[in-house]
Every structure is written in structure tokens, then in C-alpha cells.
Amino acid sequence: MSAVNKSILDFVESRQEELTAIAEALYLHPEIGLKEFKASALLSGILGKNGFAVERGIAGLETAFRACYGTAGPGIAILAEMDALPEMGHACGHNIIAAAAVGAALALRHALPEDAARIIVLGTPAEELGIGKLEMVRNGAFTDVDFAMMVHPSSRRQVVKMYLGLARVRFTFFGRPAHAAAYPDEGINALDAVIQTFNSINALRQQLRPEVRVHGLITEGGVAPNIIPERGGCYFYVRADDLKEVDEVKQRVIACARGAALASGCRLQVEEDGRVLAPLKINRAFYALYSAQLRYLGLEESTAPADKNKGSSDIGNVSQVVPTIHPHVPLGCGLHIHSEDFARATVSAMGKEAVLEGARTLALTAAALVASPEQQLKIIKEFKTN
To answer: pTM of the prediction?
Structure first.
């Protein structure tokens, strides 16, 4: 065991109660996207007290922060997600992500010389809204970053996991109200247009690749059964493996809504969200370095396919501008994100171990990266050529 690795592992062992307490504090006080005021203050405060230079409110996001230690060497960003889900709290495990990121950064601060690397913790808000990291990329938060990494809790220990690109589109239909019994012929039913949009999209799915996902909900459908709805609304996510296909499918979804408007006699308003999530760009060389740390720790990674159960995340936008890894730490077999069981598991014994595993593996990976300029070049070459 190298002196640096021993220093990292000893540090995490000695601070395990403090690190797991971070995850528990966020669990007890969940905050939704862009409202993570307590979480941001807690995380940045701990880093500031441990020698990191902290900037708050970066990239035009009030709860985003940057905490940096080191004067030279590669810029290694460790990302700390911190937002919770409405009503469910930390059912996606961002409390574990944040605690592991802080633990890894503190361990590297302890184990590496000041001129070995620039260790940068980025507090990234609003992942569940799909805008935090995207806005941070747009506003230059990653311009001096050479490598980015984070861990995410999951039902399994999976190193490589693929993510889909995602676009969002809202439809509002405008009809004409009338008494639904006495004067139905005078009305134009906006809810009919919404329902027809869903029916058309359901028919469209037969002509889409199996990996493509289109899903939505009704946001507005009238005020009373005896009034023909004057307004109707629906909101859709479109996901696919690459941004070209995302856009192509989105245009077909918009065509479904336009057809529904024409058939119902409604006027249609289309709102396309310009904040599109990119697919995760896989860097095999970088992931191999992380896998090597798992072997070093005697931990076995899952053999589940990388393309199984794909979702979307703004980590994909980071991966388009800098080599990035997003491995998963295990929280418990059979547990699935965005469930109350998953939220409770984040503060269980397995949840605490997930925090510590994440802190160890991220810190060891960063240290291995610092120690090998050849590995750095290999990762950067793959990033530039793929």
C-alpha cells in the first residue's frame, strides 16, 4: 500500500462518523432543486473550515458553490449533488453523493501535497430539475477542470452506466368554453386535444426504437365537468441515445400535438425547453482507473449491462466538456431510486457504508490520476477522439 493510499484510507476511517452525519443531516432536512440553502451552507462550510477556498453563488445559481484546494497540477472536480425530490426527500440519494464528495475531497486534502493537484468540489444544485450542472457548464464553472467525477447510490455496484439525452416540451391548447349539456356545439374542447395528443404519441411508439422513451402528464384539463375545457395542457420528456435522435423524436411528438389541435379546432402553444440534457459520454480509460481502485479494495463490481435501466442526468452535459466518470455505489439489492424505501436506505447501515465507499474510491481514483501523467494523457486522448 502506497503512503498516499494509506493516508486516504486512514483518514476516511477516522472521519467516518462525521461523513455519515452529513448524509443524515441532508436526509433530515431535504430541500428541492434551487432551494438547497441549508445543504449548500453545510457542505461549503465544512470544506471552508478544512482549508478549502470557497466561492458561493457561482454560475448564476444561488446554491451552487466551488471549494478549491491546491496550487498546481491537474484540476480534478468532485461533484456534490444535494437536491431532494418533492415529498419523497432524498429518494435519489443525493445526500450520499454530497457526503462522499466532501469525504473524498477532505481525504485528498489530507494525503496530497498542496502542489500535487487542484482539488475542486463543485456543489451542483437542481439535478432533479435537470438544470444545475447544465447551467454551470454554460457559465464556465468547468473551464479550469481537467477531470470530473462523482458517485451515485444504486441497487448495485456498477462502474459504467449509460444515460440518455433528454428534451422537454410543453403543450397548451386553447379552446372555447360552453355549457357541456346545454350548448356543447358552441364549445371547443381543449381537453380533447390533450387526450388526442396522448393517443397519437401512444401510436407513435410503435415506430420508435426500443431505447427511445416518451412520457408525459396532463398539467391542465378544465375546471368542472359541466364546462367544456377552455384550456388544456400537457408536458412531455423525450429521451434517446444521442441528441440528433432526441430532436427528431421531439419533432414527431410536436407533430402529434399539432395534429390534435387541428382535429379539435384548438389553438396550440408549444414551449420547447432549450436546456437539453446530453447523453453521458463514456470514457473507458477513466472508468478503468476507478475499477482498479475497487480491485485494490477487494470490492466486486456488478456485471449488469451498462445500458440497462437507463435514465438521464445533467452529468451528461459535464461529460461533453471534460472527461467524466459517474460510477454507482451499492445501497441494497432490489432498491430502486425515486422510492421511499430508497430514501430510508440512505441513512441505513448500507447507506453509511455507501458514503464511505464513495469517499474512498473517489479519493483513490483522484490520487491514482495525479500519480500518473501517462494515465491522464490516455484519458484525455480518448475524450478528444470519441
So the answer is: 0.94
Same structural domain, 287 and 189? no
CATH of the domain at 320: 3.40.630.10
Do 173 and 145 share a domain, yes or no? no
Q: Which of 276, 303, 336 is the last residue of a domain?
A: 276
Angle at 6 between CA 358 and CA 51, to 5 degrees: 70
pLDDT 10s digits, 272-319: 999 999 999 999 999 999 999 999 999 999 999 999 999 999 999 999
Nearest to 30 by CA among 98, 77, 131: 98
Residue 241 domain boundaries: 168-276
* Half-sphere exposure at residue 81, Cβ-oriented, CA atoms within 13 angstroms: 31
Distance separating alpha carbons of residues 329 and 236, to the nearest angstrom: 30
Picking from 170, 178, 205, the residue whose alpha carbon sits closest to that of residue 265 is 178
Shared domain for 267 and 304, answered yes or no, is no
CA 202/CA 208 separation, integer angstroms: 10
Tell me: do 185 and 243 sit in the same domain: yes
Q: What is the pLDDT of residues 343-368, one digit of tens each?
A: 999 999 999 999 999 999 999 999 99
Confirm if 26 and 39 have CB atoms less than 8 A apart: yes
Query: How many distinct structural domains can be found in the chain?
Result: 2
- Residue where a domain stops, chosen among 276, 297, 314: 276
User: What does the pLDDT read at residue 50?
Assistant: 98
Grid cell 395534429 is found at: 259
Task: List strands edge to edge, sheet with 213-220.
Answer: 213-220, 231-240, 165-174, 267-277
